[in-house]
Design goal:
heterodimer; A: mainly alpha; Sodium/glucose cotransporter; two-stranded antiparallel sheet; two-stranded antiparallel ribbon; 4 strands; 70% helix; globular; B: mainly alpha; 69% helix
């Protein structure tokens, strides 16, 4: 195991030298991005066709990711799985930001707010507030545990039944991450087809290639350093258009501050048109419309349409959804493993702060996108003669994202005659703001970066769950080091191809499962990891019962409510099913743990060690701990 | 980083109590900014602040999420620079 022993943790001085060098590289990269965009803009003015500008952005960014990927080729398992545990807090923060913000955050978040108004803010709060739980309760201890995967954590902490605990955890990780990665590949296909006029299927395979160049050669090491670059691209691309739009509409280039004016204008326009208010909370009725759409697409007989309005105006769904999203955020494996990559628990604490700061930049801006475009639509599109709509609408009607149907034939566009697909909010903003195509192409590159960076992180979770947790730890514990490596790489390839194939039919169900991923993570990992860290009495029987029971409770409510919304408690939708899964998991974990023998002494000592924020974990020697396969060192010492 | 040092029980327990005091305080603030205002969003929206934000909408879209960022940095800096130091949990250089 010569290569494996090569892991030498950095001292604080080394970390700071490394951090300065990285700052120089990425600073230069940011300047290059700005210069590159400016040059393309000048070429556009000189008459370069839009198609070439689009290709230039795709080519440049993919080439860059491939370059970073090749640069970080590795033969060391700790680099492949946890980037050598030498990622400084602030850069891990950026990487986590890119890992976290998917195609959905980048493109669909603002659209969701457009469509849901206040109720959409549950996503903004849930997807940021979860980081508080992650910082205070998880990240420093996950780092202290110092292993490779989340099933590693579960199997070591609940070591009395290591194999079963690992298997259940690995399967949960695969279900959650695989559907999520499929959605990212779909996102890449959509961006390619909308911006660059490529076929959706071609887009999917370009996306596949993009994901593989980042992760195949260097695993977590190359993923981390591409994610930092991807964060820089995506945040620049997100902030530029809306800043110009704010300057155009209000005269002040600070969208996050100025969209207050948009909100008050919207309120007045809505009152004049007698529309329901955008900022008014709790308007959503429960319906099974999405279930019907999914059933039809798969070819099953859809259920009867049902709408339940009894709970409109109550805050329960909003509060429950916020909690599910928060617990799910803290329990998602691809986010948790990012905190294995920092040098020590202290860096892990700071790193979550940076992660949320970088995510905050986008999330505090998304409602501004929604508000400005709603203002633009209510002021300049609705109520206008259909013959003289603003120029930007024409190109989006062609894509089908904007549908206009003059139902009463009066030649004037009423609000009810307008249908909008949420994605248009971010995609059309460059045009609404009157920006050149170069900026639109930059936005597309940003969306691509968001989708690819998330897909990379997820793909690594799927492939390590199979290659490390199931193959190397359960099926063949004596597998040689190079064999494990080979299986890892083959799994990345297989998982990526499967994700691309799963993305091809564009099932509505995939989008739905992604929305459910947070509830699933909240029902399985959240309680088991939380009590594993803080409650010595939690044992393996409790953890396994909790994970399985939580998963079942969550899925039962989810599916039941999805098909028939009359099946509900307090008007909670299938999106909030994690509440029930989490409750079941906590209950079973506590009751079964108390009813069976406490965890053995060596595990309780391990929990004590977790509390000491310095030094690497001292784990029991190979073979001495019951349940640890003979001949295999606990993962942290690989 | 060497392996975890041996620490006597009394010191570890005192450290752990102080750590709980900090995170329970921060979690109480987290809970308050997350759950106390949305139920009243409809009435809060009648108040306008800054450039015209309805207060209920602003609390969810900007205030709460900004408090989250601050809470994490307070936690990290207090743990790293105050509590860990007080109990002698510092990395050797």
């Amino acid at each position: 195991m010569a290569q494996e022993a090569g892991y030498t943790p950095l001292t604080r001085a080394q970390i700071s030298v490394f951090r300065r060098r990285l700052a120089k590289y990425y600073g230069a990269f940011f300047i290059f991005l700005i210069v590159f965009t400016t040059v393309l803009y000048l070429l556009e003015r000189a008459g370069l066709p839009h198609r070439f500008i689009g290709y230039a952005f795709i080519f440049l960014t993919l080439a860059l990711y491939a370059f970073i990927g090749i640069l970080n080729f590795t033969r060391r398992l700790d680099e492949y799985y946890v980037a050598g545990r030498r990622v400084p807090a602030i850069f891990n923060g950026m990487a986590t930001g890119a890992d976290w913000m998917s195609a959905a955050s980048f493109i669909s978040m603002a659209g969701t707010l457009w469509l849901l108004g206040y109720d959409g803010l549950a996503y903004i709060m849930g997807w940021t507030g979860g980081y508080v739980l992650l910082a205070l309760l998880f990240a420093p201890y996950i780092r202290k545990f110092g292993q490779f995967t989340i099933p590693d954590f579960v199997a070591t902490r609940y070591g009395e039944r290591a194999r079963l605990a690992r298997l259940v955890a690995a399967i949960c990780a695969i279900i959650v991450s695989f559907t999520y990665v499929t959605a990212q590949v779909t996102g890449v296909g959509i961006i390619m087809s909308r911006f660059f006029g490529l076929d959706y299927r071609v887009g999917v395979f370009v996306g596949l290639a993009g994901v593989l160049v980042c992760s195949f050669l260097g695993g977590m090491k190359s993923i981390t350093w591409t994610q930092v670059a991807q964060y820089i691209i995506l945040i620049t691309a997100y902030l530029i258009p809306v800043t110009f739009l704010s300057a155009k509409l209000t005269g002040v280039p600070f969208p996050q501050l100025m969209y207050g004016r948009a909100l008050s204008e919207i309120t007045q326009l809505e009152q004049a048109m007698q529309l329901s208010s955008y900022v008014q909370p709790f308007k959503q009725a429960l319906s099974n419309a999405s279930a019907i759409a999914s059933f039809k697409q798969i070819g099953l007989t859809p259920p009867e349409p049902i709408t339940v309005k009894d709970w409109v105006g109550t805050p329960w769904e909003f509060l429950a959804l916020t909690l599910c999203l928060m617990a799910g955020t803290a329990g998602l494996p691809h986010i948790l493993i990012r905190y294995y990559t920092v040098p020590n628990p202290k860096e892990a604490r700071i790193s979550v702060g940076w992660s949320l700061f970088f995510i905050w930049l986008l999330y505090v801006t998304a409602p501004a996108y929604a508000a400005f475009s709603r203002w633009e639509v209510l002021k300049n599109v609705v109520g206008q003669p259909i013959a003289s709509l603003p120029a930007w609408t024409a190109s989006w009607i062609k894509t089908g994202l904007l549908t206009i149907n003059d139902a009463n034939g009066d030649g004037i566009l009423q609000y009810s005659e307008l249908r909008i697909v949420g994605d248009i909010v971010v995609l059309a903003t460059p045009e609404i703001a009157g920006l050149p195509f170069t900026i639109a192409a930059l936005v597309a590159a940003g969306g691509l970066a968001a989708a690819l960076s998330t897909a990379d992180g997820l793909l690594l979770v799927v492939s390590t769950a199979v290659a490390h947790d199931i193959y190397a730890k359960i099926i063949n514990p004596n597998a040689s080091y190079s064999r494990r490596f080979l299986v890892s790489r083959i799994m990345i390839l297989i998982a990526a191809v499967l994700a691309a194939l799963a993305a091809l039919p564009r099932l509505a169900l995939i989008v739905q499962i992604v929305a459910w991923a947070f509830s699933l993570a909240a029902s399985t990992f959240f309680p088991v990891v939380l009590l594993g860290i803080f409650w010595k009495r939690a044992n393996a029987n409790g953890a396994i019962a909790g994970m399985i029971g939580g998963l079942i409770a969550c899925v039962v409510y989810m599916v039941g409510n999805y098909i028939d919304p009359r099946f509900n408690v307090l008007g909670l939708s299938h999106l909030s099913a994690g509440i029930f899964g989490m409750a079941a998991n906590f209950f079973l974990l506590i009751v079964v743990s108390l009813a069976t023998a406490p965890a053995p002494k060596y595990i309780q000592d391990m929990v004590d060690q977790l509390r000491i924020p310095v030094g690497e974990m001292r784990l029991p020697a190979p073979g001495t701990a019951p349940g640890t396969a003979p001949g295999v060192a606990p993962a942290g010492q690989d | 980083m060497a392996s975890t040092p041996a620490v006597d029980t009394a010191r570890l327990e005192a450290y752990w109590r102080e750590h709980w005091r900090l995170i329970l305080t921060l979690l109480a603030i987290w809970f308050a900014v997350t759950y106390l205002h949305p139920p009243f969003a409809a009435s809060l929206n009648n108040i306008k602040i800054l450039t015209g934000f309805p207060l209920g909408y602003w609390l969810s879209s900007q205030f709460s999420i900004t408090v989250y960022v601050i809470l994490i940095f307070i936690y990290a800096l207090t743990m790293n620079n105050v509590i860990d130091k007080k109990y002698g949990f510092e990395e050797e250089e």
